[in-house]
Amino acid sequence: MKTTMFRCFYAHCRQNTYFIIGLCIGISISLLMTPILDNDCLFNKAHSFESDHFTKGRSLNSESESDEYKPVINLAGKPQKALKTPQILMRPRYYSTELGIREKLFVGVLTSPTTLESRAVGLNKTVAHLVDKLMFFIDAPGPQKLNISMPGIVGFSDSRKILKPFHMLKYITDNHMGDFDFFFLVKDSTYIKARRLYEIVQDISVSEDVHAGSGKDDEHTAFCSLDAGLLLSNSVMQKVSSSLDWCVKNAFSDLDDANIGRCVLHATGIPCQDSVQGQQLTSFTLSENFNIYQDLYKLSEEAKLRAALSLYPVLNLADVFKLHSYFSKVSLVEAKQDISLLRKFIANASVSSPVRSLQLSPVSWPIGTQRGNIPVSRFDILRWDYFTNKEFCLDSDFSNSKKLRGADKLDIEYVLNATIAKIESVTNGQLQFRRLIDGYRKFDPSRGLDYQIEMAFKDTSTGHEVLKRLEVFKPLGKVEVIPMPYVTENNRINLVLPVEAVTRDQAKHFMEQYARICMEKRDKTFLMLVLLYDPTVPGKGNKDDVFLDVKQMALALSDRHKKDGNKIAWVSIKVPTRTEHGSLLEFAIADIVVKKFSPDSLVLLCQPNMEIRQDFLNRVRMNTIQEWQVFSPIPFSEFHPSIVYSTSFPRPLELDINKNYGHYDSHHTGHIAFYTKDYSTVRKLVEDIILPVNTDRDINLLLATKQKNFNGKCFLHDLYSMFVCTGKLHVLRAVEPGLRLRFRECVCPPSSGSPYEYQQCIDSRANNLGFRNQLAHLILDYQAQQLQKASM
Hints:
- The chain is an alpha/beta fold.
- It has three domains: 101-287 and 298-321, Spore Coat Polysaccharide Biosynthesis Protein SpsA, Chain A, CATH 3.90.550.50; 380-475, Roll (Nuclear Transport Factor 2, Chain: A), CATH 3.10.450; 493-774, Alpha-Beta Complex (Spore Coat Polysaccharide Biosynthesis Protein SpsA, Chain A), CATH 3.90.550.
- The chain is 37% helix and 20% strand.
- The chain has 24 helices and 30 strands.
- α15 runs parallel beside α16 (548-560).
- The longest helix has 35 residues, at 17-51.
């Protein structure tokens, strides 16, 4: 057995002799080369670590020959930028866009070029103002070739009548799909009760697919008549838009009703219905020989006629207006009946009204009041003002709170007293007033004052505190339309510009504007410069006349535009030093200048830092009415240039209306327009208080006047206060975007004028520095600079 095994092993080894020899030689060589390879590997490993920006923890020549290394992280060029930049979420500007809030009703009318000026005009006059959007679709290139100025006309170059409804659907889905909840499609031979249609869609939920109409040929058909009108919801129109190709290919009928109905049925699987969510859509078919004057009142008792949403066919414009007149009369009668029933209901309700004290008399509330303001857009929403028993909060954009005083305080106290008395009388004294928590007030110019008041009462039976939130309403009195005299924009304006020595450069810039805007365009204006000579500067007749360059410029501009009828004149007045007079100097200027003009002349008192604009001059002409009204505009005043502008944003050539550049200065009354006859009439009423000025010598007597109160109540300090205090004329005080004033340093010496004028000057100077955000940054920068200096 062993011999056999040995022989087999020997035979096997003999067959693999070369393999065994090669294996032995390879093992021997590997054992001999091991030390050399170990050194090379250490070197290569150290080199590879260095190339990867790692350093060894120990030297390779150290006795321990350790393989431990301390890695150091390379931060150069990191963090690396992402290959794909994440998208920034851009929210829309309005909530309505983000929430998908749409308008309610779109009305599309199929018409033709031959009936566009008749039937379409009738629909436009009776429907357009009662729906959100009205558009007309014709088979013509457009309204330009038809010479029609009516808006909302869309023309199609494809004149195939069978495809016109689908062109209309295509246009609506491409341009107005996301804008409206419902779409009403109709032909131009139909009279629509637009108000009733809008009320119906207001009561239908947008969450349901709507395919509704009337005028079916028989009970079993799934198609409604396009003459009666077809109402489709936004969801149905979306489904129709994806099936328009199928609809066009399968439009084989000559009737638009069948083609449109088949299209909607294929897209939604919903047949046309005459009622949806409890709302009935009915129509009334007029006979061919129907006479509007004779037959309409015979059918007036039929419920079908009054309940009908649409009537057809109406083939001429006169019949459209007759139908509209009839249904308007019916609606007016029904509204008067409803008002009469409400009057009886309110009169039977014994409700007491607020009175001026805690003692209430049993007087009923007024029967009916004006409804509240319904905002047309988001910009017309009226603001609620928060108040407590001591102050208003956030009463304006420039203050956080304001103390309750004057008419506001009396009004709120009156409302609170009346409300407390009402609650205590209704509860028979069970609830006793403890405190006012808070309240809100809103003024609606068309209605009155609305209050929402939250008060705490004590329940006398339990001793617990009870909170009550009440709504109180104070209606306005009877509103009257005041007749106003007729005015035009053809009156000549006489601009009066006072010029001091320190404002010469501004006056020359003013004359440059005046020449460019008024003289070159031949506007009906006249400029008179009032040169105010201070005793400390060279006077007139002197070769060093301080106003010599101003006079030369005025003469040059007058000669240049002599043919146009515009010229510049001047009058010289000697005044005391600038620190000795206040705004009373306006009376001296006006007294002297008015005598230079005729009684029916329109005078505008200006300032040199004003920017002249044509639209402002036109509003001066319209708002200044002889023997009736003077005009005192509130200008847009520029902030301090050193605060507002910088090297990266230089001062612009023209002042833009922006809250970062300026504000409407309500303290400014330096610009005022009046007729000379009106000024003379009012000036005589205050001559005993403000002495008249005939010559330069009278100015000192005027400024020395101490008594400046009119009737012991009103303080006279400038022309604006004179017109207000006398009450002889209306004073229109309004924000004027066309009147823009460049920044002018306001000097407020305590010795000039009165304490009231001084405080008003201080307030105006503070408000003209800059916007709150800009002033805050200025303070923070100053504090940072001070800290930096202190640390150094």
